[in-house]
Amino acid sequence: MKKKPLHVSLHASEASVVELKLGDRVQLDRLTPSPRGYLAERHGRLLGPGVATVALEPGRYFFKTLSDANLRVVTGGVTAGVTADDKDGGPIDPPKTGADPTLPPPPAKGDEAAGNAPSFTIE
User: Fold this and answer.
1) Domain boundaries, the chain
2) Residue 20 and residue 50 in contact, taking contact as beta carbons nearer than 8 Å
3) CA 72, 59, 7, 76: dihedral to nearest 10 degrees?
4) Residues sharing a CB contact under 8 Å with residue 84, sequence separation 6 or more, in sequence order
5) Contact present, 45 and 4 (Cβ < 8 Å)
6) Which of 20, 88, 119, 122 has its CA 20 to 30 A from that of 98?
7) Whole-angstrom Cα distance, residue 15 to residue 76?
């Protein structure tokens, strides 16, 4: 079965240090607000498999992985969550206002099976 990418978002409320245990190479991006939404900029180097210690300034961060990941906050304050995404890689669209609740939901896009998403744990 095909693996689905896991989309992880982090929010550092203060200067923090975290350890990320990863099974594959990931790019950590810092999200900065702009008039057109958020812009993603690479934060540091690519993180390889294994344990990486990363310093985070206050702000929002994001990464995608195809393997299980683990987060441990060493110092500071960080909250994390997993974002659900649809086949085109964007957030799942909310239901349209006024949609008939008695009708079944529209079929999923594409012809692939749902796939398995990796797990994300926080210590």
Assistant:
1) 6-85+113-122
2) no
3) 10
4) 7, 91, 92
5) no
6) 88
7) 6
Instruction: Pull the structure tokens for residue 86.
Output: 């649809």
pLDDT tens, 26-41?
999 999 988 988 899 9
Other C-beta atoms closer than 10 Å to the C-beta of 118 total: 17
DSSP strand pairing (69-75 vs 120-122): parallel
Amino acid at 87: K
Query: Would you state the structure tokens that stand for residue 87, as one six-digit string?
Result: 């086949």
Residue of 74, 62, 81 lying closest to 121 (CA atoms): 81
Identity of the residue numbered 18 = V
Question: Residue 10 and residue 108: Cα distance in Å, rounded?
Answer: 28
CB atoms within 10 A of CB 70: 15
Instruction: Give per-residue pLDDT as tens, 72-122.
Output: 999 999 999 987 554 544 444 444 444 445 445 555 555 445 567 788 888
pTM: 0.73
Q: Distance between CA 61 and CA 80 in Å, rounded?
A: 9
